[in-house]
TrEMBL record, chain A:
InterPro entries: EIIC-GAT, PTS_EIIC_2, PTS_sugar-sp_permease. It is an enzyme of class 2 (transferase). This is PTS system, galactose-specific IIC component. It is found in: Cell membrane. PANTHER family: PTS SYSTEM GALACTITOL-SPECIFIC EIIC COMPONENT (PTHR37324:SF2). Its EC number is 2.7.1.69. GO terms for biological process: phosphoenolpyruvate-dependent sugar phosphotransferase system. GO terms for molecular function: galactitol transmembrane transporter activity; transferase activity. Keywords: Cell membrane, Membrane, Phosphotransferase system, Sugar transport, Transferase, Transmembrane, Transmembrane helix, Transport. One of its GO terms (cellular component) is plasma membrane.
From TrEMBL, chain B:
Residues 4-62 form the Phosphotransferase system EIIB component type 2/3 domain. Transmembrane segments: none annotated. GO terms for biological process: phosphoenolpyruvate-dependent sugar phosphotransferase system. This is PTS system, galactose-specific IIB component. It holds the Pfam family PTS_IIB. Its EC number is 2.7.1.69. GO terms for molecular function: protein-N(PI)-phosphohistidine-sugar phosphotransferase activity. It is an enzyme of class 2 (transferase).
């Protein structure tokens, strides 16, 4: 055994010592090649991934180095400890894709998806390979807090199965929102795992404040009026000015903060798109692999969430929630993030759209109620994110300070990952908390499933095409038939 | 003449870039000079549209105004199945020919 370990160390240690960028170049190239991608396309993806990891490190360094003194001064002048830099989601995706575990979780989740398809437990083939990073993040978070790989994998599989069930449950609602009952699009995106919590508040709204719905406004008109003032770079400028003024910086420093935030927010998106290009050969290879084994069966296609981005309510709610989140961040006990990169809450509003089906006032009110969960989860995850980013050994990442994202999708899953991680160390109270949290999470999900099946039954009763396994009364004669 | 296409998605990072890359690759094969840009759908406005010949969102999109250029839903490109993407490319090619954009 010792000989095997020594041999493995002799082979792998020099590679591991090279750092995340070269490791991921090698790993991604070999895995994409293994699933049938042409070697040079696989290598192209691997090189792009290495470049993206290197670039994201430099931009994180640029932002945090510029902002850390101002954030420290902000804490001094206000007494409010909001010293965690909010990077938004793109750097977190990059950091997570910089871990070889992400490819392991990807392989596991592809197998889980195929098993569920073969057993007719789902109609969804998930081709959104890039967004696997969300569940990998959850698994890595559990490991950071003490779980072993086995426990983390079980947790990832458990949430992965619920996500796939959810994609089937939401499918008729997507058809309704897109006004297209022929399209095969659905999504397994983690942001929709907030649906059960939102559904609770939506039901309360039904009982207590249904009259508020009559004040719904034209979201598209609001977005048109806001125009570029709501764009990424404009928000970076406002927040730079805001932080600079509150932390008593000079005019020159305020200008630097404003333009640096705008620059970094734009660069995060550009580098994020390099990642998409980097994993594209692998995504195509995995999809081809799955399709070959499904023999041409008609399926729903699991995509990234933005096929709903054409619904104006998503952006109107995000625009209105941005200043609300800033205000909440300032007064929320336990929060240490000052919203910046994540302030356009696109990890929050799509789920609000799906549950409320576009009732904009409900989206804003429920969004404001649930935002603290995102801020707390971001605060809790900051040490893990910072640690993981530093482990990339990408140049530019500063040695001090914490960073995170204010609206990272899946806050509830982050809390559960932390509890599961801590429980894995064997502390009885933590085991109890983790068990209770998992029971509550599962019970809430199945109550939500019941409510969605009621909704889907209504669609079916209205003559819409709805798959049998997401409603109560079967009309197709066999479970598992596609929409 | 280069045909300019505007792709848009939620963050202007993932889906729209997949559409942009796929369209550019396919139309190079078909012998056209096509340049596509990927943006956040919330940033799309009438002024921006003036710089493009065709708009390719993922699905039906409520922009708050009626686009003055042809709109082709490019969602099927994201399914990663060539047979489903082909009708989208054919529609784009149809517009290029009809509007004499080549």
């Amino acid at each position: 055994m010792q000989t095997i370990i020594d041999l493995a160390n002799a082979v792998f240690k020099p590679v591991i010592d090279l750092g995340a960028a070269p490791i991921m170049l090698i790993v991604l190239t070999l895995i994409a090649w293994a699933v049938g991608v042409n070697f040079f396309h696989a290598l192209e993806g691997g090189i792009k991934l290495a470049i993206a990891i290197t670039a994201i490190g430099s931009v994180i360094g640029l932002l945090t180095t510029t902002y850390q003194p101002a954030l420290n001064a902000f804490v001094k002048s206000t007494g409010i400890n909001l010293s965690i830099t909010d990077l938004g989601w793109a750097p977190l995706a990059t950091i997570t894709w910089g871990s070889p575990y992400t490819l392991f979780f990807l392989a596991i989740l592809v197998i889980v998806n195929l098993i569920l398809l073969f057993l007719n437990r789902t109609n969804t083939l998930d081709v959104d390979i890039f967004d696997i990073w969300h569940l990998s993040f959850t698994g890595l978070l559990a490991i950071y807090f003490g779980a072993n790989l086995f426990i983390a994998t079980i947790l990832v599989i458990f949430i992965g199965i619920l996500k796939i069930i959810n994609s089937d449950l939401m499918k008729p609602t997507f058809n309704d929102l897109l006004d297209d009952w022929e399209n095969p699009m659905t999504t397994t995106h983690l942001n929709y795992m907030m649906n059960p919590v939102i559904m609770v508040f939506d039901k309360l709204f039904d009982k207590l404040f249904p009259w508020l719905d009559k004040y719904d406004f034209d979201a598209a008109k609001l977005n048109e009026k806001i125009g570029f003032w709501g764009s990424r770079f404009a928000i970076g400028i406002y927040l730079g000015i805001f932080i600079g003024l509150i932390s008593h910086q000079s005019v020159k420093s305020i200008a630097t903060l404003a333009f640096m935030a705008a620059t970094c927010l734009e660069l995060f998106s550009i580098i994020g798109s390099w990642f998409i290009a980097a994993v594209e050969p692998l995504s195509q290879g995995v999809t081809d692999f799955a399709n070959k084994r499904l023999g041409g069966r008609m399926l729903n296609i699991g995509l990234d969430w933005p096929f709903l981005a054409g619904r104006a309510e998503i952006w109107a709610a995000a625009n209105v929630l941005a200043p609300i989140m800033l205000l909440e961040a300032l007064i929320l006990p336990g929060n240490r993030i000052l919203p910046l990169g994540g302030i356009i809450a696109m990890g929050v509003t799509p789920a609000l759209l799906v549950v409320t089906r576009g009732k904009i006032i409900r989206m804003i009110v429920i969004g404001a109620i649930e935002l603290p969960l995102f801020l707390w989860a971001g605060t809790l995850s900051a040490p893990f994110i910072t640690h993981t980013a530093r482990a990339l050994h990408a140049p530019g990442i500063p040695a001090t300070g914490l960073f995170s994202s204010s609206t990272k999708e899946g806050p509830i899953e982050q809390f559960i990952a932390v509890l599961v991680g801590k429980a894995s160390k064997g502390e009885m109270m933590m085991v109890l908390y983790a068990a209770l949290a998992l029971i509550a999470y599962t019970a809430l999900f199945f109550w939500y499933r019941h409510e969605m099946m009621k909704r889907n039954q209504k669609y079916s009763d209205e003559g819409k095409e709805v798959a049998d396994d997401v409603k109560f009364v079967a009309t197709h004669g066999a479970a598992g038939s596609a929409d | 003449m280069t045909v300019k296409i505007l792709a848009a998605c939620g963050a202007g990072v993932n889906s729209s870039h997949q559409i942009k890359d796929a369209i550019e690759k396919e139309f190079k094969k078909r012998g056209y000079s096509v340049q596509a840009d990927a943006v956040m759908v919330k940033d799309v406005n009438e002024d921006m549209m003036k710089n493009y010949d065709i708009f390719t969102p993922i699905a039906k999109t409520d922009l708050g105004f009626t686009p003055a250029i042809p709109v082709i839903n490019a969602g099927p490109i994201l399914y990663r199945m060539p047979a489903m993407a082909k009708p989208v490319y054919d529609k784009i090619e149809g517009v290029i020919k009809k509007e004499n954009l080549k």
